[in-house]
Amino acid sequence: MLKLPRQVAHDPFLTTDEKLLLAYIQNFERRSLTCFSKDDTINECLGIPLKSISDGLSALKNKGYIDIMHASGQRALVTILRTPETPATPNPDIFEI
Q: What is the pTM of this model?
């Protein structure tokens, strides 16, 4: 089960694929603080086409939801948990998707 903060679920500027990607990344972060998942793995889990994964991750970065770093030769995805219009704040309202 993937969980999604209410502010993300209701953000009209995010596509469904972007919301799913963000929930997927946050699910991994709950366990290890960083998501190192490869696009092929995300594709197998969510059924999102590889091009849409790449485009979605870029869009999430541009919209201020995630940061993309590289560590030990791997891409690391880290969520910022805020909308571009508001500062980062903890939000107890969580949707399960």
A: 0.72
